[in-house]
Amino acid sequence: MTRSRSRRANEAWEALLTAHASLMKRFAAEPIWGELSMREYDVLYTLSKHDEPLRLFELGRGVLLSQPALSRLVDRLADRGLIERTPDPEDGRGVRLDLTEAGRERQRRVGGRHAVDVARAVTAALTDEEIALLEAIGRKLAAQGAATPAQRNRQEAVL
Prior knowledge:
InterPro entries: HTH_MarR-typ (IPR000835), MarR/SlyA-like (IPR039422), Tscrpt_reg_MarR-type_CS (IPR023187), WH-like_DNA-bd_sf (IPR036388), WH_DNA-bd_sf (IPR036390). Pfam families: MarR_2. Keywords: DNA-binding, Transcription, Transcription regulation. Helix content is 68%, strand content 9%. The chain is mainly α. A two-stranded antiparallel sheet has the order 1-2. Helix 2 (38-48) crosses helix 5. The radius of gyration is 19 Å and the shape is globular.
């Protein structure tokens, strides 16, 4: 009996989420985090990928936290001197967030060790071809998730 495309899609999604949860637990158990939680590191990493300071809502697009939880986490990181707030030149009421030099250094130090752990886990399980395919699939799904509802409707109409 063949599975429907919809069922296969849901089973693939479940496998992806299960793999993510399993790997995140493995990574969280590594002794690299020091005084940072993985969520705090995620915020530092997201800020490190941008050349310009970000507004809170922009930072929120790159992390898996609710806006209130992200606000509290940013407050803690700022209190610890890892993130700085600067006035938004385009909106006098708003602020922009960026890494301090201490935050940048902490992200680099933890990030380098985390990258080794990720590479070890992925290369142990996948061939080079599978790694390339995983990257392509991940980027394609991320682009679909970032599309606006109108863009998604146009894409679905083409399918």
